[in-house]
Amino acid sequence: MHDPLPPRPPHRSLAGTLILLGLLGLAAVGLVSARLAGLPPLRWAVDDPALPADGFYALETGPDGVALRWSRPSAGFLVPALAARQVVTLELALPRPAGQPLPRGLALEANGSRTPVLGNPAWADVAVVAPSQIGLANAVALVAHEPDDSFYPPTGDRRHLTATVRAVRLALVPDVAGLPLPAPLPGLAALLLPGLMFGILGPLAGRWAWIGAAATAATVAAAAWLVPSPALPTLLVGALAGALVAVSLRLLLVYGPAWEAGAARALAGRRGGLWEWGGLTLAYSALATLATWPLVMRLTTAVPGWPGDNFAFLYKIWWVRTALTGGHDLFHDPTVFYPFGFNFGRGEPTLPNTLPGAALALLGGDALGYNAVLLAGFVLSGLGTYGLARAVGVRRAGAALAGVAFMLAPYRLGQAAGHLQIAATQWIPLTLWCAARTGRGRRGAAALTGLCFGLTALTAWYYAIIGGLLLAGYVGLRWLVDSGPGAGGRGPSLIRNPQSAIRNVLVFGLVAGIVIAPGLAVALGAAGEAPLTHSAKAADENSASVADYALPQPLQPLWGQIGMRARLDENIIESALYVGLPGLLLAAVALWPRRRTGRQDREAWLWAGLALGCLVLSLGLTLRVLPGEVVQVGGQAVPLPARLLYDWVPGFNSLRAYARFGGGVALAGAVLAGLGLTRLLAGLRRGRGRVAVAATLTALVLADLWSAPNAWGLTDVAPDAVAGWLAAQPSGAVMRLPLTAALAGPPLYAGTAYGHPLAYGYETFEPPGFQAARPALLSFPKPAAFAQLRAWGVRYVVVAAGSYGADWPATRAYFATLPAWTPAYSAAAPRRYAAPFWLGDVQPDLTAALAPDLLVVYQLK
Fold this sequence. Notes:
This protein has 32 helices and 21 strands. The protein is of the alpha+beta class. Helix content is 50%, strand content 13%. Strands 1, 2, 3, 4, 5, 6, 7, 8, 9 and 10 form a 10-stranded antiparallel sheet that branches. It folds into 4 domains: 10-37 and 183-267, no CATH class; 42-172, Galactose-binding domain-like (Jelly Rolls, Sandwich), CATH 2.60.120; 276-298 and 365-705, no CATH class; 718-860, no CATH class. The chain is globular and about 85 Å long.
């Protein structure tokens, strides 16, 4: 029997309950503030294990016998997030060798606040007022912004030193009535704690509501007094999660029938219409904005991630904009890899990204075009997955959850650090959605399938292969599933009507071929110049391990560093493949066997098959269970199916990151999670708790995959330090050396402001002429390198001092003796990349991106 609804109208009872809980919550917040006001200032020495620190060298003992640590150019501490505003003070000194200038740009930074560190070789206090962000602890970083803020000791010590620190102090700032306001997480926990206790104690009190209210108030007071105690993490996380679950179940189980009926009335007659899709678009847009925060605040001036491949795509947007407005060849830039020029068929033209990005760049710059396309990929990926899930029988709540799970998948968030074309996953679910509609006999769906697949292939050649295999696998498994026991043995309409099937295949092929043709023709022409292939070793290096799917989401603000550190030996962008524990449990619900199988059970096994196939291919050519460790049997690596594809199927030997098949695992897993939620809701009695269960599970998926504030940080988009000087010089080609500092996205995009041809570039496959000259260029500064530069008409050479590290002073002195050139200009390149101080330690390859540099321009004689 159904439990009776409350005798009073539900909205009145609900309002009263919420008012009561709100008042108790405010009281709890006040108690926390009073408790925080009584805390004395906290102090930690640098050798205190209770103070998390990164970016520092090993402990030393100073002349006064006190422990100290030298910092790298970017270092910092994690201090407890107790109050909304906190004063963090570092006791530091800046000892320097004789003749070494004191820092000019060194600063103490915390959550947007910044305090310059004045040059003082003696011990001094430097304080910053740090507003707290969501989390159990907040970062306070010591950041070097100028190249001479740090130094290498003259005694052969290879450490890159900045400052010495011996202690950290923390004091809370009063905000209201002389009391400090709680930090976001303790404040939110205190606010929601009454809901937790009401959900637990309310049913036990029965009719004697005052017992539940009194017990709730007492528990709130006791918990608030314990907030600053060592039990803080357990208390806060438990209270927050428990409050979300308990209060939602308590209220929604009681008032759920009325809410569900109201929602049904609101959507009645509008299925698939403006209300449904408009609401989803707004919701997914909000999630995309929050997941990439604070990107939306810097849309025209910065891009997400460290300076790397993201700037190569900024260059491509710039070139498409330049070509379209200047009437140039869209697929060939003669000013890059000069004098050969660059054929875009040797890389990723990614026209579905660069064309709209270039159009938006005309309005607000290349960064706006890049960021708008990136954010649109989030929203369209969510909407496409929602439509796909609905097409295969998932209810609205499950489909919405599937859209969230895919758009916020760690695979996508990882690629968003710089791989614009791989983060644009939207066309894959849209292709499968249209294929599902084609199989159900929808007119025009075959043409839409061809269009979406064509856009998939043009977005990234990786996705031409991955999306093609997913499409072929879906059609094949669909025929098997719909022809199997319990399906009538007739198969889908695509198969049981041969004439219709042939027509659909022809329409699909024609439309897809027309869309792909321009990019494919250019790629085939480039392949004719030189093979676009990778060695088996290179193809296997960026493969996934089985553990990558279980390691935590590396961008999760609470426990992401665990996942980061576990991937030290891997490419973090490619190995972020965590499938999500809540999503995995829902997938298990979808696959749980039962006596009578229906359409959704068959559908679940179809998507499980696709997920398994993509997972196996993502492991690459040889088996890895743990990150970076190839499994060997009898001294030989265990081969996988991808090895056969690499050896025998054209196109697979051009793949360098088989881990990207993990995108198929993420999509199939999201659909499975939606099917699991649909099955779970179907097992509940109508009108009793369905809204509560759907909302709670969606919240758990969101919490598990959350990524804000984005740990990849932002990089400023602006001309480099020598752009203005070079732009004013007479014509002549520009080269950047050493070669390892030239072949990257930032130097390529920086060169667009020089106004001169660039004798370098950046892409996976370089022009054959440039490849032939590589040995001479790598021999720099030997005469062969200068001879090659003169043969190409190079007049200006930009040398990146940071590439030489501690050897730069001696190297610069040696350069001054060379008769081949003369120094013409130099400028310090300021720090343009802002990221959490700990990122350089957990991902050592980012050290160069975290440090400022010095650029010196030499003019060839």
